[in-house]
Prior knowledge:
Order of helices and strands: HHHEEEEHEEEE
Low-confidence stretches: 19-33
Mean pLDDT: 78
Strand order of the largest sheet: 1-2-3-4-5-6-7-8
Number of domains: 3
Distance between the termini: 64 Å
Largest sheet: 8 strands, antiparallel
Oligomer: single chain
Amino acid sequence: MRLKKIYLPIILGAIILNSANLFAQHATQIKDVDELKQEDKVIIESYPNVFKGAEINKVERLNSKHAKVYYSVDGNEFEAVVNADRKDLLLVATCKVIKNDALPQLVKDVFTKEIKGKIEKAYEVTTPYSSEIYRIDYVEKDGTLKSIFYNELGAVQKAPY
């Protein structure tokens, strides 16, 4: 009986301490996208094939699901869209800034016919699951910056993010 009085508090204490320790370990593994600018190495280590030699310029949240990483490599400008999930950093798409002349002629023709706007910036977009598509940023009459995506044949594509 006396042993039960001694061991019961010890066992309960060990269970409580162990569960608190497990919670602390789990909480420290979570990375928030808001902190990625200060944690550039998290991005580079997560995708060394994409961000090798990259200088990360800024990170901004696009919406509740995605964040955009602006970076440059060898003088070329890039954007990468990553999920804003607090547990895993998944690459959604990479966008390389290209000259307007580098867009396929079909894409330029469809854009000027349908949108009738001026191209602000053009991008080659690569996703892990699709072939290469093109993103065109343009300004609408009300001054809002919009993006539209095309495949190489000029067909409008759903935004990958």
